[in-house]
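Hey, I'm writing a tutorial for new members on how sequence and structure tokens pair up, and I'd like a real worked example in the thread rather than a made-up one. If someone can provide the structure for the chain below, I'll link this post from the tutorial.
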Amino acid sequence: MDTDCTREEPPATGTTIPPLPAGTRLLHIGPHKTGTTAVQGALFAAKEEMARHGVDFPAHRRHPIEAVLAACARPAMMGDTVPTEKHWQRLLDRVAATGERTSVISSEFFADAEDGATIARIVGQLGGDRVHVLVTLRPLARIMPSQWQQYVQNGLRLGYEPWLEHMLRRPPYDRPTPSFWRRHRHDRLVERWAAVTGPDRVTVVVVDDRDRGALMRTFEALLGLPEGLLRPVPETANRSLTLAETEMLRNLNKEFRGNGIPEELYSRLVRHGAIAHMKNSCGPAPQDVKIRTPRWALEAAAGIGAETAAWIGSTGVRVLGDLASLSRVPASGEPAGEPRLAPEAAARALFGMLAAVAAVNGTGKGRTVHRTSSKELVKVLGHRCLKRLRLR
């Protein structure tokens, strides 16, 4: 759950965004925690309707993560499928099959491309001059707590404030999560991609958290789609964890690492089992404690945001939204209380972990736990337990 970041001015309205030229291949590179999951879910859900308006979504699923990791020469998330060149080539083939039609590809992991040579290869393979890069940005103060809890979901064991110390006060700021500044030093991210495509083929969208539908409308306008075609999909809301949920998981990570349990098992039971089921079956309650960012870190983030805004504003890339919002220091909020894990959340996490074992061999390997009904999971798990007991 993110630190609050609000201000009193109403959101801007009435801005007309001209559509990109027909035949453009819109490449949305994130970065992480800027509404990417919601956008990908909406695009995938509307792919057939978009096609009727001349816009293709060539990925075979919501997020072609293995393909993009392979293209950027990045490793898989802990315990997940190892990305290979075949994954990337499969996506390239689907993009090529769109022909001269407009298409859109979205993955926040494109932001992990480290150098100009990698970016130039990606852009060239996706269509060269036809590629238009879209970067979505939020203030660092909003990103830091959300990104930390996401790192914890991938095995991080470090607490929030110690992690902030490493990211903001301990040069060279690349431990224990070297990907953070590669993704979230946003001026350098834009610079890397604009150096390849030219600034005229880069659009930066500053996400307005007070207007939840604005980002969808921006995509519709850029792609020339009717307003209202893209709608959020509840399954892909990808909510952040509360402080208590994150601390529970962080301590579980210590136990996993301390006992040498394989990463594949962690991925299956924890990330795709316990956490996925808990996030998708129950939401945070009003009394849940938020992840609170200390004042010194908010001010440091705002300073970096000011540098970012000044540089991006001078590059000639198209900017949609309020760059000044990147440099505002949000209110610190009330002191955080003691994080307490709701019994319902704990029960759902435990059930998700138990059900993950049953779901793999019992209800179909390709189906995730949160997409399988509780009744079906209980039935399969019960049959498997009975079978084990009979064998004994």
